[in-house]
């Protein structure tokens, strides 16, 4: 039918934007009863989440196997340093802005404190990166364990490709091409899922605003302003980094707008991963770079969440009437940066990090109830910041590895 063809030809970003605006209007007009369409949004999230584990596995295998072990070590080092530095900058920014604004001043402690979810110890998080059963990790969606196992497989294929035995090289080439084919299959599924995105976006936004309502932002308007303003400054920081590395700002954000908007409405870094990878392709970034950096970033790079943690800790301290010492503030920054390693890129995971930071600072958990009331609104913008930071880091690392494409071409010809 002609209208179906017209729908598929219409730019995706505009379809998503229309779904977002209509969803906001309908949600505010209808109110809580709009929750009846929640399954439409849940379906979109499930479709995205369906792709996460296989996409992470195959793209990381291809990424790790595409370059020599020494080259991968250099790329990986750059990615990890970038993620740690930008997360530290983000949480520091959140703390400083909140200290200036004092978002929780004048608010009262809630009558009952919510039951806090105890976050796992950092040592336990690090140990669980190594799976005792890789197939169980794949089936359960343990992203960090899947990342570790995929890197081991990819590095082993890379080592096989550089072995002296011709038979081993041929086997490596077969495994490499199989992983490439599986990755292409996943990307084709991604393109199909994205055509449903406008309907999922409509439902997600309508239910969120219909349930929370505009008035829910009033008592926490300052905290919302701090988080949204802090994210805006963090994106300015990204622009400065892109400028320093002489990358085109307009070209970057033209490609990044799809994953940024998808992250905003889905509130899931991991769920947005297929869209982020597609944006990296549009930017001309090598798969051996984005296949490593983006899956890793969706799990360990949480700039927006780190900023939210910094601002929320100050908010909780204001509500509790506690003045944090410089040592406590430094502890919050360090804890928030390290805790991002174990934070899943799924909606609401930031509350686990917040509980950890609150406990570390010695603050009461009661005021967290206030933050939890608008967590969905804050989660939208912080997830968008998370995904943008992942893509910026990938672009910067790619800019410092100009000879990678030639090396890949040579490796592929040898594999064949």
Instruction: Tell me about the largest β-sheet.
Output: none
**CATH superfamily grouping:** Sodium:dicarboxylate symporter
Name the beta content range: under 5%
| Coarse morphology | globular
Return Rg in Å.
Answer: 22 Å
Give an overview of the whole structure:
There is one protein chain. The chain has 19 helices and no strands. With 416 residues, it is mostly helical. The chain has a single domain, classed as Proton glutamate symport protein (Orthogonal Bundle), CATH 1.10.3860.10. The protein starts with a helix and ends with a helix. The model is unreliable at 110-117, 344-348 and 408-416 (pLDDT under 50).
Keywords:
single chain, Proton glutamate symport protein, 77% helix, 19 helices, 416 residues, mainly alpha
Overview in brief:
The chain is mainly alpha-helical and 416 residues long.
Q: What secondary-structure arrangement, pairings included, does this model have?
A:
Blueprint: H1 2-9, H2 12-30, H3 38-65, H4 69-101, H5 122-127, H6 134-140, H7 143-161, H8 166-194, H9 197-212, H10 221-244, H11 249-266, H12 269-282, H13 287-300, H14 303-320, H15 326-339, H16 350-360, H17 368-373, H18 375-399, H19 404-415
Helix pairs in contact: 2-9, 2-11, 3-7, 3-8, 3-9, 3-12, 3-13, 4-10, 4-13, 4-14, 4-15, 4-18, 7-8, 7-13, 10-14, 10-18, 11-12, 11-18, 12-13, 12-18, 13-18, 14-15, 14-16, 14-18, 15-16
GO molecular function, one term: symporter activity
InterPro entries: Na-dicarboxylate_symporter, Na:dicarbo_symporter_sf
Subcellular location: Cell membrane
